[in-house]
Amino acid sequence: MAWAQGSSAQSQEIRLGAGHGGQDRAKKNARAQLRVAIVAPSLRYVGGQSVQADLLLRHWQGDSDVQANFIPVDPLFPSGLRWVARVPGLRTLVRTPFYLAALWRGLRDVDVAHIFSASYASFLIAPSPAWLIARMRGKKTLINYHSGEARDHLQRSAIARAVLKRADLVVAPSSYLVDVFREFGLAAEPVPNIVDLSQFTYRPRTPLRPHLVCTRGFHTYYSIDVVVKAFARVQKKLPSAQLDLVGGGPLESSVRQLVSDMKLSGVNFRGVVSRQEIGKYYDQADIFINASRLDNMPVSVLEAFASGTPVISTSPEGMRYLVEDGRTGLLSEPGNSEALAENVLRVLRDPQLGLRLAANAFEELRRYRWESVREQWLHAYRALVPQKVGVIEESVARA
User: Fold this and answer.
1) Distances from the Cα of 290 to the Cα of 2, 91, 113, 194, angstroms
2) CA 276, CA 273: separation in Å to the nearest integer?
3) DSSP classification of residue 212
4) Is the domain of 167 the same as that of 203?
5) Looking at the structure, do residues 230 and 360 belong to the same domain, yes or no?
6) CATH number at residue 215
7) Both 351 and 383 in a single domain?
């Protein structure tokens, strides 16, 4: 397993340390570097977890405090079995032994297993085996839970409650999920998602055009049908309005049918795009629209913050922890396409409001930048492996 090895002051001491004393201090520092295995979906599956895991790996690369390696929950099949990837159900069954073997190898020489987690069946298939094998290996376990469906999941699954209770640390990207875990007697710490500013260009929208973008998947809880219905109301007032739908999912065909039935023009299905391409769709649009009925810490909203597109969204329970109504976005009740459309029209009638919302939202991004999030992850890892911190302090004292 390849490691992202730090190369700053600690490794420089190995090259420059004078005599045995310098070499001893360098060895102590090298031992003190935390070794973390990140267990998560790969970028072959476009989604919030895979993006966040990739950002963590890229940011930890070359860091003097943390070495990070990656164990994908979706390892590639051997060449003779790659056809299995096209068969749902069978691919999960066949992939499992390869995943378990990768976990056993990859967790051998680490201090912390940083395990990304969703809910329901996914929890049983990916994070639960990682947690179990990490415990068998005697490693500290950190479960990084990302699902907005946490409350229903925990009500239904005694296994999930048991695993989360026995994890050494549970981390969630929002205070909303921390509060949900507390309802079940589970402790969790909030560490926010990272926003990759390099992929986005902030620009004030002057003039503000009726060009909307939605970058959520075609899943039930994202309510893309409500987005389309809200857009229809906007277009009735402003015939030149456009809507870009960026994403994919099982409900895409029904949304296409809805657009056809409503005889709408200007609705563009852009498909699933990579993280490297997503920024241009925000840049081309002027307003971000979201109609989710269930949410946690959507990266898409942070991307809108980074791009300068005013955020017009519904307010599922978790959204109010991220978007402040009237300051960093405009919120309305889930399922209400009329109210959602009215908020779009409100910023179009008052472009200065749109500029203020976007500017305030961009300012909020400070807490989601790597410089801030790095310290929170480092604190979490060190809390799990305090003996490593002791080695650092001993090394500094003897320097």
Assistant:
1) 39, 32, 34, 20
2) 8
3) E
4) no
5) yes
6) 3.40.50.2000
7) no
Are 350 and 254 within one domain?
Answer: yes
pLDDT-derived band of residue 236, with 50, 70 and 90 as boundaries?
very high
The predicted structure's pLDDT at residue 297: 87
Please name which of 360, 262, 250, 357 lies closest in space to residue 313, comparing C-alpha atoms.
357
pTM of the predicted model as reported, rounded to 2 decimal places: 0.83
Q: Is 187 helix (H, G, I), strand (E, B) or coil?
A: coil
Question: 15 with 129, same domain?
Answer: yes
Residue bearing tokens 């993280």: 275
Sole residue written with tokens 């402040």: 324
Answer yes or no: do 297 and 332 share one domain. Answer: yes
| Pair (261, 290) in one structural domain | yes
Dihedral, 348, 353, 357, 359 alpha carbons, nearest 10 = 110
Number of domains in the chain: 2
The reply to whether 28 falls in a domain is yes
Minimum mean pLDDT range among 90-94, 136-140, 287-291: 90-94
Residue with tokens 């809507």: 243
At which residue do the structure tokens 């990768």 appear? 102
Q: Which two tokens stand for residue 317?
A: 């329970």
Owning domain of residue 62: 9-194+369-398
Lowest mean pLDDT among 20-24, 180-184, 360-364: 20-24
In terms of domains, do 208 and 96 share one?
Answer: no
Residues 6+ apart with CB under 8 A from 329: 301, 310, 311, 312, 313, 323, 357, 361
How far apart, in Å, are the Cα atoms of 375 and each of 168, 193, 372? 19, 13, 6
The token pair at 49 is 């977890």
- Alpha carbons 331 and 140: distance in angstroms, whole number: 40
The pLDDT, as a whole number, for residue 389 is: 64
